[in-house]
Amino acid sequence: MRRLILFLMPLMIGFSCKEVKNNNKEKKNLVTEKITEDEALHLLHKWTNAYLTGNANPLHEVLDDSWVYSGSTNGQTTDKVATIEEFSNADYKFHDIEYQELDVRLFNDIAIVRGSERMVIVSKPDKDTTTLKLRFTDVYKKKNGKIKAIATHSSPIIEE
């Protein structure tokens, strides 16, 4: 019996050490990629340029498949596919987009970008111009070296 115990002890110690080593590897894999303020602002400007040029293609890279927009007046949300489809078929174009009060908060692989924006939108058929002012919050995530928007909320700024 004593020989059996002496034989099994090194095996048990070996397995427990291997388990600790595997747990350390798993913890290392959980370390997130840090996003920088420059990276977050670059994504915002890439998104803006897509709108200003009327090119929906960059939106496939900017918006994560899980991205959701909320802020419509009826309380409904919109996903990536619906947003890109609407933008691609829109009877309007963005003439100008200006940002104010931009604030970027960083949390490892997450960036929260907040601010206000003024958008000048021109309808294609009759050239009617609308100016929208919004307060917005974008949430970006860096994963596998790529930064994408995962959520957006905006509220209209109504001047009295």
UniProtKB/TrEMBL annotation:
Organism: Croceitalea rosinachiae
Full protein name: Nuclear transport factor 2 family protein
Pfam families for this protein: DUF4440
Domain DUF4440 per the UniProt entry, residue ranges: 44-146
Taxonomic superkingdom: Bacteria
